[in-house]
């Protein structure tokens, strides 16, 4: 402790983390942070550690009186660190400016496994540079404790900020940059190449990202094991509009350990891209291709190759998928727990029947806006899927109260039922409420309370 107290390293100001007049931060807690602004931009202020002794006699007396009243100062270090662990990044910087003891405690390495920054106006590139420089004080140029960086929604994040992370954080395991549309492939390649332990990557909304791959230098260096060096298991590329089949082929060839892959609204993906994916990534448990309008029954045949490993599948608004594709999934993916097929208007009672008889462990099903599904399909569900907890039938024109009563009489664990814009009576809704007491019913019948 005495050695720590002799340090004179600077502390980043909260103004570096949040823009001027900011009143909120992560985890939903309100706060107000003081800062300086130059032409409307958040700037970094650097402060030395607080002095251990105040020189003015009046200030010294007031400080002594406050110290006697501050019960928090009586807590041991480990308790203080536990309290600090619940604070977001900007508040840790603020705590470091209170006193010498808090300065040392706030920069305890155990508190800096995660950096979490949010805000559209924050100068996040500079914030990451200053924070990583401070965290690299014991191990020059390398931050060994940092494992998670979350900068979602920071629109001013650029490749420069990602380069900082790639160069300084070799132990990084989780990176979330959703909504940061200024980053490009090259910066992402640097991160995955220089952070070999990266397992969780969220680049949703990053419209310039077209694939995930090693840099050319890393590929040459690792040529004997090329294609198996990226350890990413969770990849979210939602709203990466320019992702095409060739890019998905590159992702699959490099990220063979993928278990969770989300490609929502990647509108250029086709069945051919899914074929590439199934060749390399055979461990996928969760897959979303919602709003990928070129995916058809042939794509479902490829996805069915995952067999019992597949637990979660979202094919919402894939209008080319019919009962044929559902039969492929039902036949081979018997352990499916979640299926979102909303808006797949080609699905009928026959597809629901095959699904219910083969995927009996189904817990969540969304077949909203499937006008060809009727009470007959619901009866098959009720007689086979007793573990069903969530069921959405929104805008299913052929559904009536009779089908709902059959479901309620057999699926006692039902917790959520969506029958908005369905022609069901008040009596049927009351029947569901009596038999499924924990069920929340979403409806548009003004007579049912």
UniProtKB/TrEMBL annotation:
Residues 69-115 form the F-box domain. Pathway: Protein modification; protein ubiquitination. InterPro entries: F-box-like_dom_sf (IPR036047), F-box_dom (IPR001810), FBXL15_LRR (IPR057207), Leu-rich_rpt_Cys-con_subtyp (IPR006553), LRR_dom_sf (IPR032675). CDD domains: F-box_FBXL7. Residues 1-37 are annotated as: Disordered. Its main location: cytoplasm. Pfam families: DUF7885, F-box-like. It is found in: Cytoplasm, Cytoskeleton, Microtubule organizing center, Centrosome. The keyword Acetylation does not apply. Belongs to the FBXL7 family. This is F-box/LRR-repeat protein 7. It comes from Eurypyga helias.
């Amino acid at each position: 402790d005495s050695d720590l107290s002799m340090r004179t390293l600077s502390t980043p100001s909260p103004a570096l983390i949040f823009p001027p007049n900011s009143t909120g931060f992560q985890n939903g807690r309100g706060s107000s942070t003081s800062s300086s602004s130059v032409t409307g931009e958040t700037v970094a202020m650097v402060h030395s550690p607080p002095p251990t002794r105040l020189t003015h006699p009046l200030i010294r007396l007031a400080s002594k009186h406050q110290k006697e009243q501050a019960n928090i100062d009586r807590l041991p270090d480990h308790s203080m660190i536990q309290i600090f662990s619940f604070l977001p990044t900007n508040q840790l910087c603020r705590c470091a400016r209170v006193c010498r003891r808090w300065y040392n405690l706030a920069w305890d390495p155990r508190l800096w496994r995660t950096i979490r920054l949010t805000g559209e106006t924050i100068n996040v590139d500079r914030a990451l540079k200053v924070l990583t420089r401070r965290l690299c004080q014991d191990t020059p140029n390398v931050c060994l404790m940092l494992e998670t960086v979350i900068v979602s929604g920071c629109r001013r994040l650029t490749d420069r900020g990602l380069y900082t992370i790639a160069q300084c954080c070799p132990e990084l395991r989780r990176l979330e940059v959703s909504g940061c549309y200024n980053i490009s492939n090259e910066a992402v390649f640097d991160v995955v190449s220089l952070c070999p332990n990266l397992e969780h990557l969220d680049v949703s909304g990053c419209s310039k990202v077209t694939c995930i791959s090693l840099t050319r230098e890393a590929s040459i260096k690792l040529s004997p094991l090329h294609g198996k060096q990226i350890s990413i298991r969770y990849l979210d590329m939602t709203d990466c509009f320019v992702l095409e089949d060739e890019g998905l082929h590159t992702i699959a060839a490099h990220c063979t350990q993928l278990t969770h892959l989300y490609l929502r609204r990647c509108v250029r993906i086709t069945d051919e891209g899914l074929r590439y994916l199934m060749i390399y990534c055979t461990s996928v448990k969760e897959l979303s291709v919602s709003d990928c309008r070129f995916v058809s029954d042939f794509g479902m045949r490829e996805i069915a190759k995952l067999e019992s490993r597949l637990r979660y599948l979202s094919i919402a608004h894939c209008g080319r998928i019919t009962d044929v594709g559902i039969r492929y999934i039902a036949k081979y993916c018997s352990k499916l727990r979640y299926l979102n097929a909303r808006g797949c208007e080609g699905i009928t009672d026959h597809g629901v029947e095959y699904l219910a008889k083969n995927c009996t462990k189904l817990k969540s099903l969304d077949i909203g806006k499937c006008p060809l599904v009727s009470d007959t399909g619901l009866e098959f569900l009720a007689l086979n899927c007793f573990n069903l907890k969530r069921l959405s039938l929104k805008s299913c024109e052929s559904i009536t109260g009779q089908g709902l009563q059959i479901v309620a009489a057999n699926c006692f664990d039902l917790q959520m039922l969506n029958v908005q814009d369905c022609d069901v009576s008040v009596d049927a809704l009351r029947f569901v409420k009596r038999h499924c007491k924990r069920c929340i019913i979403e409806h548009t019948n003004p007579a049912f309370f």
